[in-house]
Amino acid sequence: MMGGGDAGFVTTKLDDLLAWARKWSLFQYPFVTACCGMEFMSLNGPRYDGLARFGAEAPRFSPRQADLLWVVGTIVQRQAPALKRIYEQMADPKYVIAFGTCASCGGFYDNYTTVPGIDKLIPVDVYVPGCPPRPEAVLDGLMLLQQKIQSGTRGPLVVPTREVPEMVQLRKKGTAVYYGQRKLEAERAGANPLAQLSAELLEDRPGEAVRIEREKKG
């Protein structure tokens, strides 16, 4: 076929083969800085066996031997030069996954010391939201990255939220994570977040609402 002038056809098929091999042989470099690291470690446990099943089991602690950078947790300004240096030293083609809310957008740390999302420093391929993200969401992010590598598409991807039974129960109980999200939604909608949350707390957790009122008075 190459002699007949169909070299382009052969090259295209070769690219597909290389992409298939690349997506199943990711060499990860975990950059773990905060509490999301506990959820990252659970991925390799017997319940999920997450990274091994997707060809990303063995970590590389030299950037020059890695092509997948996991940024797990909050990045402060003093860590920013180190993160950029690690990314620059990685082998091409290289990929970045923002693990959790803090890595994706800075989380609830809105101050001068925190980087409001690692995309201010390096390009991100996949965002995995959550505080912390569940292992299922992280696996969804890894599969999204594999699809991106195979198809050769460009631009960042975001893992869609997944409703699991545990989160439904937490929302019903009125956890801090749920009310933090509701506060953000209320602020974006222009509503009074304190009034809205007080009403929800009073309905779901009367004791918690009373405690908050006491702290305000104290």
TrEMBL record:
It catalyses: a quinone + NADH + 5 H(+)(in) = a quinol + NAD(+) + 4 H(+)(out). Binds 1 [4Fe-4S] cluster. It is found in: Cell membrane. Its cofactor is [4Fe-4S] cluster. One of its GO terms (biological process) is electron transport coupled proton transport. Its EC number is 7.1.1.-. Residues 35-144 form the NADH:ubiquinone oxidoreductase-like 20kDa subunit domain. Coiled coil: none annotated. Pfam families: Oxidored_q6 (PF01058). It comes from the Bacteria. Keywords: 4Fe-4S, Cell inner membrane, Cell membrane, Iron, Iron-sulfur, Membrane, Metal-binding, NAD, Quinone, Translocase, Transport, Ubiquinone. Its main location: membrane. [4Fe-4S] cluster binds at C35, C36, C102, C131. It is a peripheral membrane protein. GO terms for molecular function: 4 iron, 4 sulfur cluster binding; iron ion binding; NADH dehydrogenase (quinone) (non-electrogenic) activity; NADH dehydrogenase (ubiquinone) activity; quinone binding. GO terms for cellular component: plasma membrane; respiratory chain complex I. NDH-1 is composed of 14 different subunits. Subunits NuoB, C, D, E, F, and G constitute the peripheral sector of the complex. Belongs to the complex I 20 kDa subunit family. NDH-1 shuttles electrons from NADH, via FMN and iron-sulfur (Fe-S) centers, to quinones in the respiratory chain. Couples the redox reaction to proton translocation (for every two electrons transferred, four hydrogen ions are translocated across the cytoplasmic membrane), and thus conserves the redox energy in a proton gradient. This is NADH-quinone oxidoreductase subunit B. It comes from Sandaracinus amylolyticus. The lineage of its organism: Bacteria, Pseudomonadati, Myxococcota, Polyangia, Polyangiales. The gene is nuoB.
